[in-house]
Amino acid sequence: PQETEENLRSPICCIMGHVDTGKTKLLDCIRGTNVQEGEAGGITQRIGATYFPADNIRERTKELKADAKLKVPGLLVVDTPGHESFTNLRSRGSGLCDIAILVVDIMHGLEPQTIESLNLLKMRNTEFIVALNKVDRLYGWKVCRNSPIQKAMKQQSKDVKNEFSMRLTQLYYNNREMGETFSIVPTSAISGEGIPDLLLLLVHWTQNNVLEVKVVEGHGTTIDVVLVNGVLHEGDQIVVCGMQGPIVTTIRALLTQHPMKELRVKGTYLHHKQIKAAQGIKIAAQGLEHAIAGTGLYVVGADDELEDIKEASMED
Ligand code: GTP
Ligand code: MG
Ligand code: NA
Known about the structure:
six-stranded mixed β-sheet, binds sodium ion, 316 residues, binds guanosine-5'-triphosphate, Eukaryotic translation initiation factor 5B, disordered N terminus, alpha+beta, binds magnesium ion
C-alpha cells in the first residue's frame, strides 16, 4: 500500500434501484464479468459485495483526464436486489453504505422501488449519484463503447438528443420533491458509455470524505463488514488480511445499527451474541488497526489449520 493509503478504510458504495434497472449489469460492466446472466431468472436475490481497487478505478477514468488521486485503497461496492420483496436487504444495504448509486432505467423513469430507495437514502442522509441507465435503448443510439458520456452524446443524432432531453425532463416533472440537487449520469451497462463519469464522481466524493479505520468509543478499533454468507459469533477466532501480514484475532463484540438507524452515528449500536448473513456489521477486536478493507474475513473452525487460513487470507 502507498503511504497515502495508510490507515484509511475503503468507502462502501451501495447500488440500489427498481428491479431490472441494470444494477448488476453495471457492476458486470465495470468488473468485466457476467454475473447477471447467471442469476436465476435474471433477478438478484441477495446482497453481493465487490472490491474495486484504486488502480482499476484510475484506469477506467483516465480518458476523462482526471487526475484521479485516490486517497483510499479502493471502493467496496454492494449490490442489492431491486425486487419488491427484498425491502429488508435494501434497507440493510443502505444502512451500511457511505454513498449510493441509485439506478434508474431511462425508458421507465421513476418506479416504485426507485422511490422506496430514495426514501431510505434520505432517511439516513446518505449522498447518492443517479445512474440514468440504458441510454443505448434510445432509438437510434450510436454506440461509443466505454466512452465518457459527453463524448458519446456529441456523436448522437438530433433525434436521439431530443429523446434524451425529453425523458430527462419527464424525470424531473415526476419528481415532486424539488429543491434537492444530485448528480445524474447517463450510462449504459451494455456498451459502457458514462461508466468513466460514474466512477469519477465516486472518486470525487471520496476526496472529500476520506474515511478512517474507526475507533468507536468504548470498543477500540472496529471494522465494518458485510456478512454475505454464514454466521459469526462473539468469541470467534478470525483472520483478516493486514498490511504487515495476516491478523489473527478474536471477535470481542459484534455490533449492528438499530434497524432503520444510521450506522455511522455513534452510540447507537446493538450487541449480538451471533449474527446470520446477510447483514452489515461492525466488528470490534484487537489488532484491526492495520486491516486492509475489502479483503476477505475468515473464521477459524475447530478442525481448521490456522496456517492454511492465514495463507488464504493473504491471497485476497
Ligand atoms: P435486480 O437485481 O433483479 O433488481 O435487477 P438489476 O437492476 O440488477 O438489473 P439487471 O442487471 O439484472 O438487468 C436487467 C436486464 O436489463 C437484463 O436483461 C440486462 O441485460 C438489461 N440491461 C441492464 N442494463 C442495460 C443497459 O444499459 N442497456 C440495455 N439495453 N439493457 C440493459
Ligand atoms: Mg441485480
Ligand atoms: Na434483474
